[in-house]
Amino acid sequence: MRIEMNIVDNDTIKVNKIMAGAGIAGTIVYAIADMFLYIGQDVLSDDQTALWDVPEWRLMTSMWIGVIGSLLLLMGFISLGKMYHNVFNRWGNVLILPSLLCIGGVLYMHFTLGVYSPLTYRSAINAGVSESQIVTLIEHAQSYLNPLTYTLAILGYLTEIILIYGVLSGKFGLKKRNVFYIFGGYFILVLIFVVFAKITGEWGLTGSLESLLEMTFFIPAYLYWRVK
Question: Could you tell me if 80 and 20 are in contact, meaning their C-beta atoms sit under 8 angstroms apart?
């Protein structure tokens, strides 16, 4: 009976490790989806309509790649939630909420602002809506979306704080230097993207960095299940 339980436990750990790896892969897939939206665009511009002037085939490609990325992120989130439950017990159900809301909000923003809004913009242009009317609509929408953007940023920081605490306190069973490796690695990645964008002038690549930041959510979960 004990042998059977060990087999079940080992299988569960293996599945959770795979799902955490899927979450990591999901952030990369989402970064690719972002590239279809932002490459060739001036992401540093304050002109929102300039970002929305994207061919429809690129928008639809980004959408379907994003669907695949969403499924992978969901798997990663399940693995992260199980790690929280194992480590923090009942509190895990509360502590997982910031990451749940953050990931869900980012997915919503991708499909709403990244795909649906540009499609709506192109439809409005084709229907003869004036540029000034569109700008007025954008400014009105931004007044509602800005609080959501700030909230997602706060939730993301809360998630990172919880994960850093879990590593540094030893609750995840990981060495403290993993915090340096995870966030130092991301900083190096950002630096590479920025240098490449500076050399080539293609700043649209940096639009993928936000999606890649979510990788720091799932790497601790992957390492946790790997050492179990």
Answer: yes
Residue identified by tokens 């665009």 is 41
What does the block give as tokens for 200?
A: 């080539």
Dihedral sign for Cα atoms in the order 64, 68, 71, 73: negative
User: Hey, CA dihedral for 53, 56, 57, 62, is it positive or negative?
Assistant: positive
Range of the domain at 111: 2-227
Domain count across the chain: 1
Do you know the residue count of the chain?
A: 228
Query: Is the pTM for the entire model greater than 0.90?
Result: no
Q: What DSSP state is assigned to residue 179?
A: H
Q: How far is CA 163 from CA 38, 150, 181, 225, 227, in A?
A: 30, 20, 13, 14, 16
Which residue's structure tokens are 């995840």? 172
Q: How far apart are CA 18 and CA 57, in angstroms?
A: 32
Do the beta carbons of residue 78 and residue 19 sit within 8 Å? Answer: yes
DSSP 39: T
Q: How far apart are CA 16 and CA 66, in angstroms?
A: 22
Between 218 and 122, the more confident residue is 218
* Cα distance between residue 34 and residue 185, in whole Å: 20
Helices assigned H by DSSP within the chain: 2-38, 48-52, 56-88, 91-95, 97-109, 117-126, 131-168, 177-200, 209-213, 215-227
pLDDT in tens, 14-28: 999 999 999 999 999
